[in-house]
Amino acid sequence: MKTLIKAARLIDGTGAAPVKDPILVIAGGKVEAILSGTVPAEFADAEIHDCPGATILPGLIDTHVHLNLPGDGTLLEEAMRETPGVLMATSTFAVGKALAAGITTVRDVGAHERTAIDLRRALQLGHGEGARVLACGQPITVTGGHTWYFGGEADGEDGVRRKVREMVKLGADFIKVMASGGGTVGTQSWKPSFTPGELHALADEAHRFDRLATAHCLCAQSIDDVIAAGFDQIEHAGFIADRKGNQVYDPAVAERLAKSGIPVTSTLAVGGAVLREMRARTVLTPADQAFLARWEKMAADNMAQFRKLRAAGVSFVAGTDAGWRFTRIDDLPLEIAMMHEGGMSTMEALVAATGYAARVIGLADETGTLKPGLAADVLVVSADPLADLAALRDVRLVMQAGKVTASRQPL
Ligand SMILES: [Zn+2]
Protein backbone atom coordinates (compact mmCIF):
# COMPACT_ATOMS: atom_id res chain seq x y z
CA MET A 1 0.00 0.00 0.00
CA LYS A 2 1.30 3.39 -0.97
CA THR A 3 0.93 6.62 0.95
CA LEU A 4 0.76 10.03 -0.69
CA ILE A 5 1.21 13.47 0.84
CA LYS A 6 -0.11 16.44 -1.12
CA ALA A 7 0.81 19.99 -0.15
CA ALA A 8 1.51 23.46 -1.55
CA ARG A 9 5.30 23.07 -1.65
CA LEU A 10 8.09 20.61 -0.89
CA ILE A 11 11.58 21.45 0.36
CA ASP A 12 13.81 18.44 -0.27
CA GLY A 13 16.64 19.36 2.13
CA THR A 14 19.35 19.72 -0.54
CA GLY A 15 18.93 23.47 -0.98
CA ALA A 16 17.18 23.05 -4.35
CA ALA A 17 14.23 25.34 -5.13
CA PRO A 18 10.96 24.08 -3.60
CA VAL A 19 8.67 21.85 -5.68
CA LYS A 20 5.25 23.40 -6.25
CA ASP A 21 2.06 21.39 -5.67
CA PRO A 22 4.06 18.28 -4.78
CA ILE A 23 2.84 14.74 -4.32
CA LEU A 24 5.25 12.77 -2.17
CA VAL A 25 4.87 9.06 -2.92
CA ILE A 26 5.88 6.70 -0.10
CA ALA A 27 6.13 2.92 -0.25
CA GLY A 28 7.76 0.40 2.08
CA GLY A 29 8.85 3.12 4.50
CA LYS A 30 10.82 4.93 1.80
CA VAL A 31 10.37 7.81 -0.56
CA GLU A 32 9.40 6.36 -3.92
CA ALA A 33 8.89 9.50 -6.01
CA ILE A 34 8.18 13.19 -5.90
CA LEU A 35 5.51 14.18 -8.41
CA SER A 36 3.60 17.39 -8.85
CA GLY A 37 0.15 18.45 -10.02
CA THR A 38 -2.81 16.06 -9.84
CA VAL A 39 -2.70 12.54 -8.46
CA PRO A 40 -2.25 10.00 -11.30
CA ALA A 41 -4.97 7.33 -11.67
CA GLU A 42 -2.55 4.53 -10.69
CA PHE A 43 -2.66 5.86 -7.11
CA ALA A 44 -6.45 5.59 -6.77
CA ASP A 45 -6.06 3.06 -3.91
CA ALA A 46 -3.35 4.94 -2.04
CA GLU A 47 -3.80 6.52 1.35
CA ILE A 48 -3.70 10.28 0.73
CA HIS A 49 -2.82 13.00 3.24
CA ASP A 50 -4.13 16.15 1.62
CA CYS A 51 -2.52 19.20 3.25
CA PRO A 52 -3.52 22.32 1.29
CA GLY A 53 -1.30 25.34 1.91
CA ALA A 54 1.23 23.20 3.78
CA THR A 55 4.94 22.54 3.27
CA ILE A 56 6.58 19.12 3.15
CA LEU A 57 10.12 18.92 4.55
CA PRO A 58 12.50 16.13 5.49
CA GLY A 59 12.22 15.25 9.18
CA LEU A 60 14.57 17.56 11.08
CA ILE A 61 17.91 16.44 12.54
CA ASP A 62 19.35 17.80 15.78
CA THR A 63 23.05 16.90 15.76
CA HIS A 64 23.75 17.86 19.39
CA VAL A 65 21.46 16.72 22.20
CA HIS A 66 21.82 15.26 25.69
CA LEU A 67 18.82 12.98 26.16
CA ASN A 68 19.63 12.34 29.83
CA LEU A 69 19.19 15.98 30.79
CA PRO A 70 15.77 17.61 31.24
CA GLY A 71 16.51 21.10 29.79
CA ASP A 72 14.60 22.84 32.60
CA GLY A 73 17.57 24.57 34.20
CA THR A 74 18.67 21.51 36.17
CA LEU A 75 22.45 21.55 36.39
CA LEU A 76 24.46 18.53 35.27
CA GLU A 77 25.65 18.02 38.83
CA GLU A 78 22.01 17.80 40.08
CA ALA A 79 20.78 15.67 37.18
CA MET A 80 23.53 13.14 37.77
CA ARG A 81 22.34 12.44 41.30
CA GLU A 82 19.53 10.45 39.72
CA THR A 83 19.82 6.74 39.04
CA PRO A 84 20.47 5.37 35.53
CA GLY A 85 16.81 4.28 35.51
CA VAL A 86 15.61 7.86 35.91
CA LEU A 87 18.08 9.06 33.26
CA MET A 88 16.77 6.38 30.91
CA ALA A 89 13.14 7.38 31.53
CA THR A 90 14.01 11.06 30.97
CA SER A 91 15.70 10.09 27.69
CA THR A 92 12.69 8.05 26.60
CA PHE A 93 10.32 10.98 27.16
CA ALA A 94 12.76 13.22 25.29
CA VAL A 95 12.86 11.20 22.06
CA GLY A 96 9.05 11.06 22.03
CA LYS A 97 8.78 14.82 22.43
CA ALA A 98 11.40 15.43 19.74
CA LEU A 99 9.56 13.22 17.28
CA ALA A 100 6.24 14.98 17.92
CA ALA A 101 8.00 18.26 16.99
CA GLY A 102 9.14 16.81 13.66
CA ILE A 103 12.69 16.06 14.78
CA THR A 104 12.98 12.55 13.40
CA THR A 105 16.69 12.07 14.21
CA VAL A 106 18.76 13.19 17.20
CA ARG A 107 22.45 12.67 17.80
CA ASP A 108 23.18 12.21 21.49
CA VAL A 109 26.64 13.67 22.15
CA GLY A 110 26.92 12.55 25.75
CA ALA A 111 24.94 10.38 28.12
CA HIS A 112 25.53 8.35 31.24
CA GLU A 113 27.14 4.94 30.77
CA ARG A 114 25.08 3.09 28.10
CA THR A 115 21.69 4.76 28.55
CA ALA A 116 21.49 6.41 25.10
CA ILE A 117 22.80 3.29 23.38
CA ASP A 118 20.23 1.11 25.16
CA LEU A 119 17.43 3.52 24.24
CA ARG A 120 18.55 3.35 20.61
CA ARG A 121 18.30 -0.45 20.83
CA ALA A 122 14.80 -0.38 22.36
CA LEU A 123 13.61 1.93 19.57
CA GLN A 124 15.18 -0.34 16.94
CA LEU A 125 13.24 -3.24 18.48
CA GLY A 126 10.06 -1.21 18.00
CA HIS A 127 9.37 -0.84 21.71
CA GLY A 128 7.85 2.60 21.49
CA GLU A 129 8.16 5.66 19.31
CA GLY A 130 10.81 8.31 19.31
CA ALA A 131 13.31 10.18 17.22
CA ARG A 132 15.96 7.89 15.73
CA VAL A 133 19.01 8.01 18.02
CA LEU A 134 22.66 8.19 17.07
CA ALA A 135 24.79 7.84 20.19
CA CYS A 136 28.43 8.20 21.22
CA GLY A 137 27.85 6.51 24.58
CA GLN A 138 30.04 8.48 26.97
CA PRO A 139 31.92 11.53 25.78
CA ILE A 140 35.63 10.91 26.33
CA THR A 141 37.07 13.41 28.79
CA VAL A 142 40.16 13.81 30.99
CA THR A 143 39.89 12.70 34.62
CA GLY A 144 37.63 15.25 36.28
CA GLY A 145 36.99 16.88 32.88
CA HIS A 146 33.77 18.25 31.34
CA THR A 147 30.85 15.81 31.88
CA TRP A 148 33.05 13.25 33.68
CA TYR A 149 29.85 12.13 35.44
CA PHE A 150 28.84 10.28 32.29
CA GLY A 151 31.70 7.83 32.83
CA GLY A 152 34.01 8.70 29.93
CA GLU A 153 37.20 9.58 31.81
CA ALA A 154 40.48 8.53 30.14
CA ASP A 155 44.05 9.77 30.20
CA GLY A 156 47.26 9.21 28.27
CA GLU A 157 47.60 8.09 24.66
CA ASP A 158 47.09 4.41 25.51
CA GLY A 159 44.25 5.22 27.91
CA VAL A 160 42.27 7.21 25.38
CA ARG A 161 42.75 4.57 22.68
CA ARG A 162 41.38 1.99 25.10
CA LYS A 163 38.39 4.24 25.88
CA VAL A 164 37.57 4.59 22.17
CA ARG A 165 37.64 0.79 21.90
CA GLU A 166 35.33 0.52 24.93
CA MET A 167 32.85 2.92 23.29
CA VAL A 168 32.98 0.95 20.05
CA LYS A 169 32.37 -2.23 22.06
CA LEU A 170 29.32 -0.60 23.71
CA GLY A 171 28.00 0.21 20.25
CA ALA A 172 28.92 3.88 19.79
CA ASP A 173 27.92 5.28 16.40
CA PHE A 174 30.64 7.94 16.63
CA ILE A 175 33.21 9.24 19.11
CA LYS A 176 32.76 12.46 21.09
CA VAL A 177 35.69 14.10 22.85
CA MET A 178 35.77 16.98 25.33
CA ALA A 179 38.78 18.92 24.07
CA SER A 180 38.33 21.77 26.55
CA GLY A 181 36.53 22.28 29.83
CA GLY A 182 32.89 23.32 29.83
CA GLY A 183 29.90 23.94 32.06
CA THR A 184 30.92 21.18 34.50
CA VAL A 185 31.98 22.57 37.88
CA GLY A 186 35.76 22.58 38.29
CA THR A 187 36.63 22.38 34.59
CA GLN A 188 38.46 25.03 32.57
CA SER A 189 36.58 26.20 29.45
CA TRP A 190 39.42 28.54 28.59
CA LYS A 191 42.05 25.80 28.28
CA PRO A 192 42.52 22.61 26.23
CA SER A 193 41.96 19.43 28.27
CA PHE A 194 43.78 16.76 26.30
CA THR A 195 47.35 17.03 25.02
CA PRO A 196 47.89 17.19 21.24
CA GLY A 197 49.21 13.61 21.43
CA GLU A 198 46.05 12.37 23.17
CA LEU A 199 43.82 14.15 20.63
CA HIS A 200 45.74 12.59 17.77
CA ALA A 201 45.35 9.15 19.36
CA LEU A 202 41.59 9.74 19.85
CA ALA A 203 40.92 10.77 16.25
CA ASP A 204 43.18 8.03 14.88
CA GLU A 205 41.57 5.29 16.97
CA ALA A 206 38.06 6.47 16.05
CA HIS A 207 38.98 6.36 12.37
CA ARG A 208 40.54 2.89 12.70
CA PHE A 209 37.05 1.73 13.67
CA ASP A 210 35.37 3.79 10.92
CA ARG A 211 33.77 6.12 13.44
CA LEU A 212 33.51 9.87 12.92
CA ALA A 213 35.15 11.91 15.68
CA THR A 214 33.75 15.18 16.97
CA ALA A 215 35.17 17.46 19.65
CA HIS A 216 33.70 19.97 22.08
CA CYS A 217 35.88 23.10 21.88
CA LEU A 218 35.25 26.23 23.93
CA CYS A 219 38.67 27.86 23.57
CA ALA A 220 40.81 28.82 20.58
CA GLN A 221 43.74 26.52 21.42
CA SER A 222 41.42 23.50 21.60
CA ILE A 223 40.10 24.34 18.11
CA ASP A 224 43.65 24.48 16.74
CA ASP A 225 44.63 21.22 18.47
CA VAL A 226 41.54 19.41 17.17
CA ILE A 227 42.15 20.61 13.59
CA ALA A 228 45.74 19.34 13.81
CA ALA A 229 44.58 15.99 15.21
CA GLY A 230 42.28 15.39 12.22
CA PHE A 231 38.82 15.44 13.81
CA ASP A 232 35.74 15.38 11.56
CA GLN A 233 33.62 17.93 13.38
CA ILE A 234 33.76 20.58 16.10
CA GLU A 235 31.01 21.38 18.61
CA HIS A 236 30.49 25.03 19.63
CA ALA A 237 33.87 26.48 18.48
CA GLY A 238 34.01 28.99 21.34
CA PHE A 239 36.78 31.50 22.03
CA ILE A 240 36.67 31.64 25.83
CA ALA A 241 39.88 33.31 26.97
CA ASP A 242 39.64 33.49 30.76
CA ARG A 243 37.91 32.06 33.82
CA LYS A 244 35.23 34.77 33.69
CA GLY A 245 34.04 33.46 30.35
CA ASN A 246 35.14 36.43 28.25
CA GLN A 247 35.52 35.48 24.60
CA VAL A 248 38.29 36.81 22.36
CA TYR A 249 37.72 35.97 18.70
CA ASP A 250 40.89 34.95 16.89
CA PRO A 251 40.77 35.50 13.11
CA ALA A 252 43.87 33.36 12.51
CA VAL A 253 42.22 30.36 14.20
CA ALA A 254 39.05 31.06 12.20
CA GLU A 255 41.08 31.03 9.00
CA ARG A 256 42.68 27.67 9.86
CA LEU A 257 39.26 26.28 10.79
CA ALA A 258 37.78 27.42 7.47
CA LYS A 259 40.73 25.97 5.56
CA SER A 260 40.35 22.61 7.33
CA GLY A 261 36.76 22.32 6.03
CA ILE A 262 35.68 20.91 9.42
CA PRO A 263 32.00 21.70 10.03
CA VAL A 264 30.99 23.30 13.31
CA THR A 265 27.81 22.64 15.29
CA SER A 266 26.20 25.98 16.06
CA THR A 267 24.47 25.47 19.48
CA LEU A 268 23.22 29.09 19.50
CA ALA A 269 20.00 27.89 21.16
CA VAL A 270 21.76 27.47 24.53
CA GLY A 271 22.02 31.24 24.94
CA GLY A 272 18.66 31.82 23.25
CA ALA A 273 16.91 29.45 25.67
CA VAL A 274 18.52 31.01 28.75
CA LEU A 275 17.40 34.49 27.63
CA ARG A 276 13.89 33.21 26.84
CA GLU A 277 13.60 31.67 30.30
CA MET A 278 15.04 34.54 32.33
CA ARG A 279 13.17 37.26 30.43
CA ALA A 280 9.86 35.41 30.96
CA ARG A 281 10.28 35.45 34.74
CA THR A 282 8.43 38.19 36.57
CA VAL A 283 10.71 38.09 39.61
CA LEU A 284 14.48 37.98 39.28
CA THR A 285 16.71 37.62 42.33
CA PRO A 286 20.04 39.49 42.25
CA ALA A 287 21.69 36.16 41.39
CA ASP A 288 19.24 35.70 38.50
CA GLN A 289 20.00 39.21 37.26
CA ALA A 290 23.73 38.51 37.28
CA PHE A 291 23.13 35.19 35.49
CA LEU A 292 21.00 36.96 32.87
CA ALA A 293 23.60 39.68 32.34
CA ARG A 294 26.34 37.07 31.90
CA TRP A 295 24.27 35.17 29.36
CA GLU A 296 23.24 38.29 27.47
CA LYS A 297 26.93 38.89 26.87
CA MET A 298 27.65 35.22 26.10
CA ALA A 299 24.75 34.93 23.64
CA ALA A 300 25.75 38.18 21.90
CA ASP A 301 29.38 37.00 21.65
CA ASN A 302 28.28 33.62 20.29
CA MET A 303 26.12 35.28 17.64
CA ALA A 304 28.90 37.70 16.66
CA GLN A 305 31.36 34.80 16.39
CA PHE A 306 28.87 32.79 14.31
CA ARG A 307 28.72 35.69 11.84
CA LYS A 308 32.50 36.14 11.75
CA LEU A 309 33.24 32.43 11.36
CA ARG A 310 30.74 32.20 8.51
CA ALA A 311 32.30 35.24 6.85
CA ALA A 312 35.68 33.47 7.20
CA GLY A 313 34.25 30.46 5.35
CA VAL A 314 33.40 28.05 8.18
CA SER A 315 30.32 25.89 7.57
CA PHE A 316 27.76 25.28 10.30
CA VAL A 317 25.42 22.41 11.02
CA ALA A 318 22.37 22.75 13.28
CA GLY A 319 22.58 21.43 16.83
CA THR A 320 20.95 22.80 19.96
CA ASP A 321 22.68 21.25 22.99
CA ALA A 322 19.14 20.27 24.08
CA GLY A 323 18.99 19.16 27.70
CA TRP A 324 21.74 21.56 28.70
CA ARG A 325 20.60 24.51 30.87
CA PHE A 326 17.20 25.65 29.58
CA THR A 327 17.45 24.18 26.08
CA ARG A 328 14.47 21.93 25.39
CA ILE A 329 14.52 18.78 23.35
CA ASP A 330 12.17 20.39 20.79
CA ASP A 331 14.19 23.63 20.49
CA LEU A 332 15.63 22.91 17.04
CA PRO A 333 13.30 25.52 15.44
CA LEU A 334 14.86 28.08 17.83
CA GLU A 335 18.33 27.07 16.63
CA ILE A 336 17.27 27.32 12.98
CA ALA A 337 15.74 30.77 13.59
CA MET A 338 18.93 31.94 15.33
CA MET A 339 21.08 30.66 12.44
CA HIS A 340 18.88 32.76 10.15
CA GLU A 341 19.27 35.74 12.49
CA GLY A 342 23.03 35.15 12.22
CA GLY A 343 22.95 35.65 8.45
CA MET A 344 21.88 32.36 6.87
CA SER A 345 18.98 32.48 4.42
CA THR A 346 15.92 30.58 5.60
CA MET A 347 16.78 27.87 3.04
CA GLU A 348 20.40 27.58 4.25
CA ALA A 349 19.23 27.30 7.86
CA LEU A 350 16.75 24.55 6.93
CA VAL A 351 19.43 22.64 5.00
CA ALA A 352 21.74 22.93 8.05
CA ALA A 353 19.10 20.97 10.00
CA THR A 354 18.25 18.44 7.26
CA GLY A 355 20.43 17.49 4.27
CA TYR A 356 23.68 19.02 5.51
CA ALA A 357 23.14 17.67 9.03
CA ALA A 358 22.71 14.16 7.62
CA ARG A 359 25.88 14.50 5.55
CA VAL A 360 27.96 15.72 8.50
CA ILE A 361 26.87 12.92 10.83
CA GLY A 362 27.16 10.20 8.20
CA LEU A 363 23.47 9.54 7.52
CA ALA A 364 23.14 11.04 4.03
CA ASP A 365 22.40 7.62 2.49
CA GLU A 366 19.49 7.07 4.89
CA THR A 367 17.73 10.32 5.75
CA GLY A 368 17.95 14.13 5.77
CA THR A 369 16.71 14.72 2.23
CA LEU A 370 13.59 13.67 0.36
CA LYS A 371 14.96 11.55 -2.46
CA PRO A 372 13.77 8.24 -3.89
CA GLY A 373 15.24 5.38 -1.86
CA LEU A 374 15.78 7.31 1.37
CA ALA A 375 13.71 6.83 4.53
CA ALA A 376 10.34 8.57 4.47
CA ASP A 377 11.18 10.76 7.45
CA VAL A 378 8.85 13.66 6.84
CA LEU A 379 7.69 16.83 8.55
CA VAL A 380 4.64 18.70 7.22
CA VAL A 381 4.04 22.20 8.57
CA SER A 382 0.98 24.36 7.93
CA ALA A 383 2.63 27.38 6.29
CA ASP A 384 5.83 28.27 4.41
CA PRO A 385 9.01 28.21 6.54
CA LEU A 386 10.97 29.89 3.74
CA ALA A 387 8.78 32.96 4.30
CA ASP A 388 8.72 32.67 8.10
CA LEU A 389 10.64 30.05 10.07
CA ALA A 390 8.02 30.26 12.84
CA ALA A 391 6.03 27.92 10.58
CA LEU A 392 8.25 25.07 11.86
CA ARG A 393 6.35 25.21 15.15
CA ASP A 394 3.02 24.60 13.43
CA VAL A 395 3.37 20.86 12.90
CA ARG A 396 0.70 19.27 10.73
CA LEU A 397 2.09 15.78 10.29
CA VAL A 398 5.20 13.80 11.22
CA MET A 399 6.20 10.58 9.56
CA GLN A 400 9.12 8.35 10.48
CA ALA A 401 10.16 5.68 7.99
CA GLY A 402 6.76 6.01 6.33
CA LYS A 403 4.73 5.66 9.51
CA VAL A 404 2.62 8.58 10.71
CA THR A 405 3.67 9.32 14.29
CA ALA A 406 1.89 12.65 14.80
CA SER A 407 -0.84 14.42 12.89
CA ARG A 408 -3.22 17.28 13.42
CA GLN A 409 -6.15 18.35 11.33
CA PRO A 410 -6.23 22.08 10.58
CA LEU A 411 -8.79 24.08 12.56
ZN1 LIG B 1 26.63 19.46 24.67
How would you characterize this protein structure?
By secondary structure, the chain is an alpha/beta fold. The protein folds into 2 domains: 3-58 and 365-407, Urease, subunit C, domain 1, CATH 2.30.40; 60-330, TIM Barrel (Alpha-Beta Barrel), CATH 3.20.20.140. The chain contains 12 helices and 18 strands. The chain has helices spanning 76-79, 84-100, 115-124, 157-170, 196-208, 220-229, 251-260, 269-280, 286-312, 332-341, 346-352, 355-360; strands at 3-6, 9-10, 19-20, 22-27, 30-36, 47-50, 55-58, 60-65, 103-108, 132-135, 175-178, 213-217, 233-236, 264-265, 316-317, 378-381, 395-400, 403-407. The protein has a 6-stranded mixed beta sheet, with no helix packed on it. The protein has a 5-stranded parallel beta sheet with strand order 11-12-13-14-15. The chain has a 4-stranded mixed beta sheet with strand order 5-4-1-6, with no helix packed on it. Helix 3 links the parallel strand 9 (103-108) and strand 10. Helix 5 (196-208) crosses helix 6 (220-229), helix 6 runs parallel beside helix 7 (251-260) and helix 10 (332-341) packs across helix 11. The longest helix has 27 residues, at 286-312. Bound molecules: zinc ion. Zinc ion (ZN) is lined by residues 64, 66, 109-110, 321, 324.
Furnish the topology, listing elements before pairings.
Layout: E1 3-6, E2 9-10, E3 19-20, E4 22-27, E5 30-36, E6 47-50, E7 55-58, E8 60-65, H1 76-79, H2 84-100, E9 103-108, H3 115-124, E10 132-135, H4 157-170, E11 175-178, H5 196-208, E12 213-217, H6 220-229, E13 233-236, H7 251-260, E14 264-265, H8 269-280, H9 286-312, E15 316-317, H10 332-341, H11 346-352, H12 355-360, E16 378-381, E17 395-400, E18 403-407
Parallel strand pairs: 1-6, 2-7, 8-9, 9-10, 11-12, 12-13, 13-14, 14-15
Antiparallel strand pairs: 1-4, 2-3, 4-5, 7-16, 16-17, 17-18
The structure holds zinc ion.
